[in-house]
Amino acid sequence: MPELSADLYGTVSHKLDALQPSGIREFNKEVSKIPGIIKLTLGEPDMATPEHVKQAAIRSIEEDDSHYAPQMGKPELLEAISDYIQNTRDVHYDPQTEIIATVGATEALDATLFAILNTGDKVVVPTPIFSLYFPLIEMTGATVVQVDTSADNFVLTPEKLEEVLEEEGKGVKAVILNYPSNPTGREYPQEVLAGLAEVIKKHHLYAIADEIYSELVYGVEHYSIATMIPERTIFISGLSKSHAMTGYRLGYVAAPAKIMTNISKMHAFLVTTVTNNVQVAAAEALTNGLNDPLEFRKIYQHRRDLLVAGLKKLGFEMLTPEGAFYLFAKIPAQFGTDDVAFAKQLAKEAKVGVTPGSAFGKGGDGYVRLSYASSDENLTEAIKRISEFLDHLA
């Protein structure tokens, strides 16, 4: 096993070296070492990818679809994405110039942020939120402006956004909106989005809309800010959550052609193009699998209700999620706001893995995130173990 030459120690990207790894992944890695643990830590659907989608990928391989795909994506996939957004958001994106297939929504975010940000720019990020946004923004040389939304039921209000923009002054270039939200499961009502759209227009900003969980909503309608201000919105989504295709790594970004020129350039630098059979599978999902998420949605809603009811009986405080597959619950009072201590003790003594809320930025202290992308049996057993854990604490 070779060892790095001593004279190369420390000769790395100082910007990257200064960034912390994902707190979500690091905590999951730590608790995964505990034998018999029930992990409710990661947002990983436990469903199988629909059979017709898998068969499309297999056919692509069998037909020797093994050469470089067009850089922005296969035409049939870009057409399918365009049709899907037209039908669900009432916005037409030209499949030839305004859509790119990416390696997951993560690459879509990365390409977007590097395409629009310069050193010294600022990005407003309502928190708690998926923490990957923070290092991606910082790698560009821009600054994250975290806005704690916990006092507003974990929704960024137009009034709060206006207040933050007045405080920050010049330099803010974009606002990131992730809804339904990871980790809170909160949706944005139409009137709130309309108000945010007005503030974003007034201050000449981009809206980066990460709507990866939009097909998984419960009892509410999903609205998109792209419908309201398409000229300012960079729309990001993918198939990972809606079709249980996390391992396929298929996302996409859609935006006006003038900004897509830069995003496409960054996409080319990062990955060249997306794997062929993955694109074929995604085209099948968006063409013949639009109803697939409906079945998943029923299952997740049942699991949500099971987990919410069980934890409320144990005295946990939470808002009932309206989308995604996460529950954001306040930890027992005796732990104060030390969610890390609570999550570690719960993992070691009760063998239930949850993610500390502080991993999601400001406003997350004193909470934990539980993923209900797990079986009924696991969720029922987790509630039982948590109940016994709390009894021992009393």
Structure characteristics:
394 residues; alpha/beta; Aspartate Aminotransferase, domain 1; Aspartate Aminotransferase, domain 2; 7-stranded mixed sheet; 4-stranded antiparallel sheet; 14 helices; 43% helix; globular
What is shown here, in short?
The chain is α/β, with parallel strands linked by helices and 394 residues long. It has helices at residues 14-17, 23-31, 51-62, 75-89, 104-116, 133-139, 158-168, 190-202, 225-228, 257-271, 276-288, 292-313, 339-350, 376-393, and strands at 38-39, 99-103, 122-127, 143-148, 172-178, 206-210, 233-238, 250-254, 317-318, 326-330, 352-353, 355-356, 367-371. It has 14 helices and 13 strands.
Task: Kindly describe this structure.
The chain is an alpha/beta fold and 394 residues long. It has 2 domains: 6-48 and 292-393, Aspartate Aminotransferase, domain 1 (Alpha-Beta Complex), CATH 3.90.1150.10; 52-288, Aspartate Aminotransferase, domain 2 (3-Layer(aba) Sandwich), CATH 3.40.640.10. 43% of the residues lie in helices and 15% in strands. The protein has 14 helices and 13 strands. The protein has helices at residues 14-17, 23-31, 51-62, 75-89, 104-116, 133-139, 158-168, 190-202, 225-228, 257-271, 276-288, 292-313, 339-350, 376-393; strands at residues 38-39, 99-103, 122-127, 143-148, 172-178, 206-210, 233-238, 250-254, 317-318, 326-330, 352-353, 355-356, 367-371. Helix 3 runs antiparallel to helix 11. Keywords: Aminotransferase, Pyridoxal phosphate, Transferase. Residues 37-386 form the Aminotransferase class I/classII large domain. Its cofactor is pyridoxal 5'-phosphate. GO terms for molecular function: pyridoxal phosphate binding; transaminase activity. Belongs to the class-I pyridoxal-phosphate-dependent aminotransferase family.
